[in-house]
Amino acid sequence: MAHRRSLHSLARLISSSSTVAPRCTVKSLASILPNHFSTAAISSSSDCILPDSEATFWCSSLFSRNRARHFCSSSRKDDDEGEDEEDGDEDDDEESEGDYSDEDEEGARESSDSNSKPKPPPPGPVDKVARAAEIGYKVVGKLRPSEKVFKPYEPVYAVVQIGSHQFKVSNGDTIVAEKLKFCDINDKLILTKVLLLGSATQTIVGRPIVPDSAVHAVVEEHALDEKVIIFKKKRRKNYRRTKGHRQELTRLRITDIQGIAKPEIKVDPKPTKPTKPSKPTKPSKPTVEEQEQVAVAA
Amino acid sequence: MALRGVWHLRKLVVSYSDWGGSSRGIRAFMDSRIPSFKEANPHLELETELIRGQHPHLKAFCKNNNERVVCVRNMTPEEVLLHATRLRNALGRKVVKLKTRHVTKHLSVQQRIICSSRTQNLPKTHS
């Protein structure tokens, strides 16, 4: 270890002189050494412990490190120059921001893109679909004015997941989710993450998702929520920060639930008033209601 | 916003100044972005209004007779377009804090059955 340390110190000294060739043997090193370091000791150490080949390896590795260091410093210089250039370009951008003509804007964008870190490209259509599927929806298409997708209420419900929120919905309900980026107003959506389906007589529980089921919805609104004030304060430190935030939300209207048998709605005729109030009869015992079936989706 | 497929923004008035510096962005918006915006929203009535010496603003008239005004001074064309799109997408209602994220008119189907069975099974108190 002591020998290695001595070699390290040697290499440092030589790198400081900066006139040494990168590859050299211990003997040549000894010839360059300053006076205060005894050449004999080094030669003896190299003879006794390190074979020549190993010594050359050590020296070369050390020198290569030094060289790398040297390059680092030079690269730093280069970086500084690059930063200077960037600064200059930024100044140019600021100057060009004065006028909002299209050409200037494009030029400024290009220059800013070339100088700053490479931004991730905007998501393509395939990427958008994948990201939307991850959240739990799929855009089907635009709602046409001639289409009649808004149906009357059906006694069926579903639990759907959008992002990290779960909603218990039935036909005609409106829900407010976090903003769904990849859809526009009046887009028809399919909410794919259906966790549970239920009707009066049946319940289907997904593990975690019910297969072959879907909830259809239409995008009604992209809006901002009410402003929330974030107020930070540290007592006795003269520190107060106030910040406002408005969350972006999307309102959806559920149009259809698929994957469960829908019972028909019985439309009762208007009850006619009885002419004479009949004698109150004893209430019959409650009939055994239909047992609710609970199924677990495979 | 479109409620059941019916757009609620009827009219958008773009007011600007042909002289002021704060209207620079909206002037560029009117040159470059308004034609495409108009094409994308044929249901919308777009008007431009020259008010010299005033800051520019967008004024939205909704179907529920509400109007909303957004100041767009010193904004870039992209920002102005964003605000115009938000006005198109937004409901004309007053912004209030959401109490619930789920609005329904109907009681749950199964809950209704449970309630009815409970009421039927209640013991009699008076003979």
TrEMBL record, chain A:
One function term, GO molecular function aspect: rRNA binding
Alphabetic keyword roster: Ribonucleoprotein, Ribosomal protein, RNA-binding, rRNA-binding
GO BP of this protein: translation
Signal peptide range in chain numbering: none
Keyword rRNA-binding listed: yes
Any one Gene Ontology cellular component term annotated for this protein: ribosome
InterPro entries: bL21-like, bL21-like_sf, Ribosomal_bL21, Ribosomal_bL21_CS
Biased composition (Acidic residues): 80-107
PROSITE patterns: RIBOSOMAL_L21
Region Disordered, annotated ranges: 72-128, 263-298
Family: Belongs to the bacterial ribosomal protein bL21 family.
Protein name (record): Large ribosomal subunit protein bL21m
Organism: Linum tenue
Lineage: Eukaryota, Viridiplantae, Streptophyta, Embryophyta, Tracheophyta
Automatic annotation (TrEMBL), chain B:
One of the GO BP terms on file: mitochondrial translation
UniProt xrefs under Pfam families: L51_S25_CI-B8 (PF05047)
GO cellular component: mitochondrial large ribosomal subunit
Coiled-coil blocks: none
Keyword Cell inner membrane: no
Keyword Chaperone: no
Main location, first listed in the record: mitochondrion
Key words, A-Z: Mitochondrion, Ribonucleoprotein, Ribosomal protein
Domain (Ribosomal protein/NADH dehydrogenase) ranges: 18-91
Membership in a protein family: Belongs to the mitochondrion-specific ribosomal protein mL43 family.
Name of the protein: Large ribosomal subunit protein mL43
